[in-house]
Amino acid sequence: MKATLRALLIFMAALLSAPAFAQGPRIQQHETFQPEEIVQAGHSFFGTVSRGIALTVQEAFRRWGAPNGYILGQEGSGALIGGLRYGEGVLYTRNAGQMKVFWQGPTVGFDVGGEGARTMMLVYNLPSMDGIFRRFLGLDGSAYFIGGFGLTAAVADNMVVVPIRSGVGARLGVNIGYLKFTPTATWNPF
């Protein structure tokens, strides 16, 4: 088991070290969003789970500070030991505008179930609009039946993406995987 986990971690590290796409407009690191702005965007996006989004955003700000970008979108995922996740949304920044993005990725772990989720992702240390187009490694845990709310973190270089999900479905488990962001939709999670 240790050898398998070690091989998986080496494989994931190799994938994360792949070169990024060409750099687009630079994003000013000091031009971040305030908690009230993110909570307001979450209220408009998530609707009835407003209290949950406010508490989750507060926790993300406590842990990671103020993001310089965020993504609003939706995704679907399923797992039976190994799993897949696919999503699409819009990346918003303070000074570089907005851009449509897609994400996909495999997972492996002790995980079973499926979900459909509305997703808000807080993005930290985003250097440019095209800087999002890479793989972000993360550990995820889910435990809900019918509906739920979750917060995780995925990293690449010094960037952090914090997905906040409000999902419908049934999911139980812990997995390791990555999210690969792309400018166009693709079925290839690798």
- The N- and C-terminal alpha carbons lie at a distance of 23 Å
CATH class: Mainly Beta
Helix content: 10-25%
CATH topology: Lipocalin
Essential attributes:
190 residues; alpha+beta; five-stranded antiparallel β-sheet; 51% strand; globular; disordered N terminus; EipA-like; DUF1134 domain-containing protein; signal
Overall description:
The chain is α+β, with helices and mostly antiparallel strands and 190 residues long. The protein has a single domain (2-18, 45-182), classed as Lipocalin (Beta Barrel). It is built from three helices and five strands, in the order αααβββββ. It has helices spanning 2-16, 35-46, 50-64, and strands at 69-93, 98-124, 135-151, 153-156, 159-182. Strands 1, 2, 3, 4 and 5 form a five-stranded antiparallel β-sheet that branches. A hairpin with a 2-residue loop joins β4 and β5. α2 runs antiparallel to α3. It is globular and about 40 Å long. Mean pLDDT is 80; it is low at 1-23. InterPro entries: EipA-like (IPR008325).
